[in-house]
């Protein structure tokens, strides 16, 4: 069965003396923690196509390439014209320009959990086109889904000594490349002005994903070409990280630091490099001028920081500039929308579900780090319940604070709740047992909790966007071990007082017994005033199997539900009384 694992690394709960950035002793990722569905493809920025072509190969002649490996079991690269050869459906069909003529692919996933790969795909001949060029760039198109593998190109000028250039190292685990993505590698240190150049692709993995390449070129790049790599936008707090928050309560407004990461993909050193940013009718900022050597990457922070005046949506548009620039089309960063809300929601995720996380039936806690800038009160934690979660699953939330010693110190939690059918695929607000005061300058971890052992899929939490390392965390209950993941969980703080919902639930004091039931089950509740109560029972598909409308007086009420005709299984008992709606799980045998 194909795995869908998220990137998790072991975390020891040690922080710096300022309790800022977590540092840890890292272990291999647990193989039982997974992602769902498909991930949003990583955006790509075009590389200049005006460069001078020295040599190219489109895999239309398979004999041009020699495959070797020391894999167990033996696993080579293959050249195929099957555009659906990838194990990742989101990257099929492969959109290579000349894919129908053939392309190279290695599939680690197909080798299973016991397989290891160490495989080379080598161009069979010397390339003789680089002798008059001091700057040489290797370019190729790829599709790639990443786990823990190493993907590299290796270059030699004597076919004996090889220099390794790793690619995709900055890709987050369990994310996809674009389809296709153009990769550019400066190999001038080995290939520049050389009479003979040899190239090969190297894949080292062990039950990882796959790598496919096509349309390989050696080129002389334009002299001047800047590329916008990615934005670096966020608020900096006690954790020491610059974290992007997509929803920020008014009480947590802080100066927003805006930066852009820029690469010089031209052949010459680029002077007077700047990044510019604007928010329409609101903000304009410019970075200090800098210099980038050929294929150097650096971050340019804008001045001034941006501090919003109040609630609203603020879309930041950014671009990098240098003079001259042969390809301004790749100078624009993806816009970032920063929302200040008056509804008390504090969100690290990008708000639109692109994936999900689970623990294959085992219990876990999953959530995000939040820096607090002004004193607040936390009433609830919101959890995006992935559509593949199972109705009837019990879920809770917890809060931890990072204490002075750098440990995750328990602060509070909610009662267990049972997920109703209409909550699957939605964001569920879970009230804490007691509101928790949050202190300015401290950092907290808000998590969703699944105890494990339920039927079906259990709880699967939506994910959206990517997190810096050591800022989104998972606690594996069976091993009592904390890990971190680079997929941002859709777990959010809520500072909105939900009118004492937990106290109202306690006042109603709903119970269902016996549980499991055979012939009858009794629903009991307390009523402060007389009224009507609606009881409905649904199976886990949402089908209503029983309902009744009941008049009641004050005091403790007992409603008997006949269950002898029910099929054995798990049901949800839904009680609506005096404007309060409660759900309990009932097992019938």
Largest pleated sheet: 10 strands, mixed
Give the CATH level 1 class of the largest domain. Answer: Mainly Beta
- Poorly predicted ranges (pLDDT <50, ≥5 residues)? 1-49
The radius of gyration is 28 Å
Q: Which range best describes the helical content: under 10%, 10-25%, 25-40%, 40-55%, 55-70% or over 70%?
A: under 10%
Counting copies of identical and different chains, the oligomeric state is single chain
Domain module tally:
4
Instruction: Report how far apart the termini are.
Output: 33 Å
Shape: globular
Could you please describe the fold and organization of this structure?
Strands 16, 17, 18, 19, 20, 21, 22, 23, 24 and 25 form a 10-stranded mixed beta sheet that branches. Residues 1-49 have low confidence and may be disordered. Helix content is 2%, strand content 49%. The longest helix has 8 residues, at 501-508. The protein has 2 helices and 46 strands. A hairpin with a 4-residue loop joins β42 (531-539) and β43. By secondary structure, it is mainly beta. It has 4 domains: 15-21 and 354-494, Jelly Rolls (Sandwich), CATH 2.60.120; 52-220, Jelly Rolls (Sandwich); 226-341, Immunoglobulin-like (Sandwich), CATH 2.60.40; 503-588, Immunoglobulin-like (Sandwich), CATH 2.60.40.
């Amino acid at each position: 069965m194909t795995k869908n694992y998220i990137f998790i690394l072991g975390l020891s709960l040690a922080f710096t003396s300022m309790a800022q950035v977590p540092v840890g002793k890292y272990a291999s990722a647990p193989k039982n923690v997974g992602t769902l569905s498909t991930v949003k493809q990583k955006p790509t920025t075009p590389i200049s196509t005006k460069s001078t072509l020295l040599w190219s190969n489109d895999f239309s002649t398979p004999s041009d390439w020699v495959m070797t490996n020391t894999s167990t079991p033996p696993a080579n690269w293959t050249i195929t014209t099957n555009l659906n050869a990838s194990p990742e459906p989101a990257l099929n069909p492969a959109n290579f320009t000349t894919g129908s003529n053939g392309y190279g692919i290695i599939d680690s996933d197909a080798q299973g959990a016991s397989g290891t790969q160490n495989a080379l795909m080598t161009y069979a001949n010397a390339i003789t086109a680089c002798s008059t060029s001091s700057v040489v760039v290797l370019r190729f198109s790829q599709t790639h889904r990443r786990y823990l593998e190493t993907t590299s190109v290796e270059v030699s000028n004597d076919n004996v000594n090889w220099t390794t250039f790793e690619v995709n190292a900055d890709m987050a685990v369990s994310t996809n490349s674009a389809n296709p993505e153009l990769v550019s590698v400066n190999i001038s240190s080995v290939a520049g002005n050389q009479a003979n150049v040899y190239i090969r692709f190297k894949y080292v993995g062990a039950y990882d994903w796959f790598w496919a390449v096509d349309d390989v070129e050696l080129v002389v790049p334009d002299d001047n070409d800047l590329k916008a790599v990615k934005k670096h936008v966020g608020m900096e707090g006690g954790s020491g990280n610059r974290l992007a928050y997509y929803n920020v309560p008014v009480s947590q407004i802080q100066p927003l630091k805006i930066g852009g990461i820029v690469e010089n993909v031209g052949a010459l050193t680029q002077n007077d490099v700047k990044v510019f940013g604007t928010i329409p009718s609101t903000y304009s900022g410019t970075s200090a001028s800098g210099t980038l050597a050929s294929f150097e990457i650096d971050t340019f922070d804008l001045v001034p920081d941006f501090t919003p005046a109040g609630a609203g949506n603020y879309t930041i548009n950014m671009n990098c500039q240098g003079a001259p620039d042969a390809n301004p089309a790749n100078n624009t960063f993806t816009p970032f929308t920063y929302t200040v809300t008056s509804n008390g929601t504090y969100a690290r995720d990008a708000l639109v579900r692109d994936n999900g996380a689970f623990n294959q039936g085992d219990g876990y806690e999953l959530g995000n780090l939040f820096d607090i800038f002004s004193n607040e009160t936390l009433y609830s934690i919101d959890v995006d319940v992935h559509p593949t979660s199972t109705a009837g699953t019990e879920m809770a939330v917890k809060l931890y604070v990072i204490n002075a010693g750098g440990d995750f110190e328990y602060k509070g939690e909610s009662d267990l709740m049972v997920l109703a059918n209409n909550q699957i695929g939605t964001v569920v607000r879970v009230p804490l047992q007691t509101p928790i005061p949050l202190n300015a300058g401290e950092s907290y971890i808000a998590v969703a909790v699944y105890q494990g052992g339920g039927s079906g899929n259990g709880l699967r939490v939506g994910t959206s966007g990517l997190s810096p390392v050591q800022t989104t965390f998972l606690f594996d209950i069976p091993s009592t071990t904390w890990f971190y993941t680079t997929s941002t969980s859709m777990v959010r703080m809520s500072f909105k007082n939900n009118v004492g919902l937990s106290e109202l639930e306690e006042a109603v004091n709903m119970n269902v017994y016996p549980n499991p039931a055979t012939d009858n089950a009794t629903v009991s509740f307390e009523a402060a005033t007389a009224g009507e109560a609606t009881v409905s029972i649904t199976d886990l598909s949402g089908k209503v199997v029983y309902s009744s409308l009941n008049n009641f007086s004050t005091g403790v009420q007992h409603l008997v539900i006949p269950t002898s005709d029910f099929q054995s299984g798990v049901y949800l008992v839904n009680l609506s009384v005096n404007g309060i709606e409660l759900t309990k799980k009932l097992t019938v045998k």
